[in-house]
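Lab meeting tomorrow. Look over both lines:
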Amino acid sequence: MLKRLKILVVLMASVVALLGVLAVLLPLSLVTSQLPATIQLTNPQGNLAFGQADELVISGTSLGQLNWRFRPWLFWLGEPSWHLSLQTGWGELAADTTWVNGHRFDIDDLSLKGQMNSKWPVALPIQFGADIEARVQHLRIEDDAITRLDGTITLKQLNLGDPATLLGDYLISTSPDINGIAVGIKSDPSALISTNLNLVIKPAHEYQLNGLVSSSSPALQSLLAFIPNVAYNDGNGHMRFDVHGTY
């Protein structure tokens, strides 16, 4: 029995080593030519195992310089995997990525550190500024839908695009929920806008949002002006959210 186990371990190690050699030898164009039209790499260099591109562009938005490193030990399970890192104009991002069964994309140990500024790639209805730090243990995308998200996002010194409009510090936490994905948005006790919101992202692109937001600052009214018919004044100085829908 022990001899068979040793043979199996050697066989597995040999397969991993062979796949690693193939990843080095296979031309990078083999992958870049198969990318969707919405994903573009500018001046890619290296091979499938190790390489970089001057720019990663997704749907016309530049995300910065991309580096990748092959993770061969998952290939013998039929799960192509790479460690990816991005150097951008707003910060740094790194994660382990795995393609599973042709329809599931797993992102593990994601770390992000940077600033929300003019180079921030996500369009928002309001201009925000903040120091942002994220730690995501696991993100799973299946059939174009997020089915698991477990991590935290910290926003420090959040403002309305100007340090003079400081709102405070906020924590966004996500975890698996029996109904989908639970998202909590909490403010620091000293924040200008006191926030305690709970969002559940459900299957079939449904969501439910409830909680309270309060502030003595006019900044709250300017924020709520962008989300009509979502919150109402409960008569106690709080704006109450209690809404569900689809996205």
